[in-house]
Structure prediction request, 422 residues.
Amino acid sequence: MNNLLSRLFGRARKGSGATAKDRLRFVLQHDRINLPPERMEEMKREILAVIVKYLVVDKERVEIDLEQRDRSHSKLTAEIPVAIHTATTANRAEEKNVVAAKGAGANGANNGADTEDEAEDASAEAEEAETPKAIEDEKSDQGDQGDSAEDEKSKPG
Amino acid sequence: MGGKVVTISSGKGGVGKTTATANLGISLASLGKRVVVIDADIGLRNLDVIMGLENRIVYDLVDIVEGRSKLRQAMIKHKKFADLFLIPAAQTRDKMAVSPDDMVNLTDELREDFDYILIDSPAGIERGFRNALEPADEVLIVTNPEVSAVRDADRIIGLIEAADKGPGKLIINRLKTDMVKKGEMLSSDDVFDILGLAIIGIIPEDELVLSASNSGIPVTLNLQSKAGMAFNNVARRVIGEDVPFMNLDANPGILQRLVGLLNGR
Prediction:
């Protein structure tokens, strides 16, 4: 019935003309901001990689899109669903661990610096972090492992 | 400031810029306007043959710019219209022989004696296009309802706006209404949606355009031609008349759709 209605009122346009329109919209979107599709995907991955360092993200539902009103007005929009930290299922904890491990690696490098200011910063960060203790312990373990693994790798090279 | 400079541009080649320029020139002249058409496609001149004036050429645009010819000497008068002239492009030089400033100086001189100066821009976005764009008061962008032509038109539109010559107006050329009906071609509405520019003309596909090009008599002079009528309408819109768009029957009525449904289409 839906099909019949849409055919009757000319809404369904499945011909190659509609395909042409879709393809044009896509290609012009990238032409106008001078960013080819592959580079755009690269940018999205990088944006996500940064966010994932700080938050647990539902990657399946992430939407980063370029909206275009007209030739001179483009807007990059991002909808990034973030997991709430009270979730206690094993899965979530694991996922968080992976994320935190990466973060810990970076912190480790910071702690290595010996100026007082930086040490203070690091402790402030630790206070802000609301991760449960158990996970935090695991996290630092993994972080150390990760670091040492990296060190070993870098030596032969 | 006198006459108005209208540049006909497209980005992509082969979409009908030269045909549009010739026909607008003829139509404007038949509306009683004093008109010069300039072929800015140096090295690939064609406006002369489309207008049927190829055997009268003595001097060309580069001769004027380089001082070998006076402006009036190089202007070729049309056979039918006493107030329609062509300045042909040089055939053996390239686009670097003329600068955007040269074009401004030339058109400033022409503005004093003519109502409309039409410039047929070469394809591309380089020097030849810059030459044609620099003196323009208004830019008409010719495109076909086809992916590559619309894409190139978009690029050109961006450059026109960046040069503070925008917004241009669109001429959608070679629209095949039967294909649009079947959903197998972009409609003029689709092109408008994508480019967001006012449409000043919709020219239907018409075999008579080729016949006209064969004989060197622009199609607007053929009263049987739908494309000719459509070009004539563009000319009337250029001079400010409010002309409704021809009914090209692009959208089938509900009755036709019912018939199509009953026939299982």
